[in-house]
Amino acid sequence: MDKSSQSQDFELLTEIAIAYYCDEVTQEEIANRFGFSRIKVGRLLKRAKEEGIVEINVRYHPVFSTQLEKQMQERFPISRALIALDHNDEDEQRRQVAALVSGYLANNLRDNMVVTVGQGRNVAAVAEYTSPIQAKDCRFICGIGGTHRTGDVINADHISRLLAKKFGGSSESLYAPAYVENPELKAALMRNGTIKETLDRARKADIALVGIGDMNENSYMVKLGWFTPQEINDASLHQGVIGDIAGYDFFNAQGKHVNTVMDDRVIGLNVEELRQIPCVIAIASENTKAMSIMGALRTGAIDVIATSARNIRTILSMTQ
């Protein structure tokens, strides 16, 4: 098709789309107007969506999530479920979930509150989400050490700094690696005064912001070199591990802790310590994480879950 024909084609699709979606002209009336069959009009409207001429957005409505949230509250020990509309694009889905968490924080943060910050893409998306927010005199503290990856935006320290900038508060770094080679090295680092004091403050936080991970060969921990693909397979197939909270505390489908090679090698807050924090917000936007979310909820450490409607519906169907 030459450029002239293509331009005329787009003009026709646009004209038909405007008539149907904006002027509320019926497909039958459009067919009569253009001399097409009603079936052809339907095909042209479909093409208009495929070509990007028409974009359909469904407005978020509180009634949509209220019923799902109520069912979740009846089945799990949570205070809130922040449920985003489904989106096929993973990045956009993550942004939609992050928007809900950002709004929740904006409504619930108060001056002098302390927020413990975890790592991962979903937690980072909350910090990166831009919206008008009233400044709060809060303190954001890393709840896990850092990783050495140049330009990595999913480190807890980077996220903590972004959150402090976003909400107008301050940030405290945890001057330690997230992962060490053996338990002896971890024990030595945990005796360090600077590390100990930061983690003590993180344990006493009012809110914790963490991610939920699943077990697969493409996981964040494999990319960091913490796990080999074989170790991931062994943990999931032979030990029943289905996910993790905060990047390393692993659990099975019943929400029970499972010992792995990561035990006593990560410098950060564990599930038992998270349970002591009044409000733990866990985020998992990916549609592959329904099983992991269910296990995480059963740990009893989560107060607010933020995810997609698709994940929520899957979880509800699995727990009927």
TrEMBL record:
<dbReference type="InterPro" id="IPR051054">
    <property type="entry name" value="SorC_transcr_regulators"/>
</dbReference>
<protein>
    <submittedName>
        <fullName>Putative transcriptional regulator</fullName>
    </submittedName>
</protein>
<dbReference type="InterPro" id="IPR036388">
    <property type="entry name" value="WH-like_DNA-bd_sf"/>
</dbReference>
<keyword id="KW-0805">Transcription regulation</keyword>
<keyword id="KW-0238">DNA-binding</keyword>
<feature type="domain" description="Sugar-binding">
    <location>
        <begin position="62"/>
        <end position="317"/>
    </location>
</feature>
<dbReference type="InterPro" id="IPR007324">
    <property type="entry name" value="Sugar-bd_dom_put"/>
</dbReference>
<dbReference type="InterPro" id="IPR036390">
    <property type="entry name" value="WH_DNA-bd_sf"/>
</dbReference>
<dbReference type="GO" id="GO:0003677">
    <property type="term" value="F:DNA binding"/>
</dbReference>
<keyword id="KW-0804">Transcription</keyword>
<comment type="similarity">
    <text>Belongs to the SorC transcriptional regulatory family.</text>
</comment>
<dbReference type="InterPro" id="IPR037171">
    <property type="entry name" value="NagB/RpiA_transferase-like"/>
</dbReference>
<dbReference type="Pfam" id="PF04198">
    <property type="entry name" value="Sugar-bind"/>
</dbReference>
<dbReference type="GO" id="GO:0030246">
    <property type="term" value="F:carbohydrate binding"/>
</dbReference>
